Amino acid sequence: MATMILALLEEHENAAHVSACLEACGHEVFVVDTFVKAKGLLKSQNIDLIISDVHLVNGGNVFDFLRWAKASAATSNIPFVLFSNKPSPTAKYLAEGVRISARILGAVKYFEMDEFDAVKFQKHINELLPPDRQTTNSTSAQT
Fold first, then answer.
1. Average pLDDT, stretch 93-100?
2. CATH of the domain at 107
3. What is the C-alpha separation between 77 and 61, in angstroms, rounded?
4. What total number of domains does the chain contain?
5. 8 Å CB contact between 122 and 135
6. How far is residue 81 CA from its own chain's centroid?
7. Phi, psi of 138, deg, nearest 5
8. Residue 140 placed within a domain
9. Which residues contact 128 (CB under 8 A, 6 or more apart)?
10. Do residues 48 and 4 touch, judged by C-beta distance below 8 A?
11. Do 109 and 127 touch, CB atoms closer than 8 A?
12. For residue 117, what are the domain limits?
């Protein structure tokens, strides 16, 4: 059974890497570029995991989306992951504060990558999945 993953990622290249990595592992990925679209999808699909770019620019604040997801009875138990690919120097400086805030608001994980690494990304996601839905690190997940 495929894991249903919502990926809120604004940058096309980042979305392509994440989607290809997760789909190569057998997961079904729904990529959206605003948290308004993410909310709509969460209302219409059964999602097992939410991955969101931590640095949203267009259409909302990731913490507003995280608060909304954790406040709703229908979505409060879905693991929520914040991800930063190619963070700016300012984003790196603020990372620990973002990590702490995210955990307080209900995110299960925050991680960043200077360059996308599919195997490492897959490892981070596997840690959050039940054993029967975990995948093995393989070259098919590399993008």
1. 92
2. 3.40.50.2300
3. 20
4. 1
5. yes
6. 5
7. -145, 160
8. no
9. 49, 79, 81, 108, 109
10. yes
11. yes
12. 4-128
Burial of 124 (0-12, 13-18, 19+ CB in 10 A): middle
The runs of H, that is alpha helices, within the chain are 12-24, 35-44, 62-71, 89-105, 118-126
Domain-located, residue 135: no
When pLDDT is cut at 50, 70 and 90, the band that residue 133 belongs to is low
In a domain, 10, yes or no: yes
CB 121 within 8 A of CB 20: no
Say if 143 falls within a structural domain. no
pTM score, whole prediction: 0.89
Q: What is the pLDDT of residues 29-77, one digit of tens each?
A: 999 998 889 999 999 999 999 999 998 877 668 899 999 999 999 999 9
- Record the tokens describing residue 141, joined without a space: 């997940």
